[in-house]
Amino acid sequence: MSEPVGELDPGFSSPGASARPWSDVEAKLTEAQIFWLSTVRVDGRPHVTPLPAVWTAGSLHFCTGPGEQKAKNLEANPLVALTTGTDQQNAGLDVVVEGRAVRVTDPARLAELARLWKERLDWDYTVSGDMFMPDDEHHAYVFGVAPAKVLAFGKGEPFTQTRFRFP
User: Fold this and answer.
1) How far apart are the first and last CA of the chain?
2) Which of 10, 17, 49, 31 is nearest to 95 (CA)?
3) Which domains does the chain have, with CATH numbers?
4) Among 24, 29, 49, 138, which residue's CB has the most CB atoms within a 10 Å radius?
């Protein structure tokens, strides 16, 4: 993935501010442990839930059990938003990733993701076929979201709102 160029929205940024660099956003995506996943139920109602996710190879990855609400929602509509950041008003960086959740089923890719979950989040997953196994009785689908758009909100002077678009 080539590095996207950020476009500052001057209407939501401090005077004289510059677009946030992609390196700051990618660092936040890599370091964050919890994201808020937003999906839409079949009847149109929103569903939002916190979950751990792993950023690697230009995509944000998360997992869910096949019977969970988010898995049911993704079956009907794979478009999602994942957000992370801080609860502070005047400090930090909030990031919103919009894209399409695509199931990861390749065993080699799943093994690499399981290694990253352990390394970054200390979660133990084994790979069984085309899914994660957190224990002997449960299994989880893994999804990757390659960004279609990323919004980065720099909080604290200078305040910034930067949009990154992806091909």
Assistant:
1) 9
2) 31
3) 6-105+140-165 (2.30.110.10)
4) 29
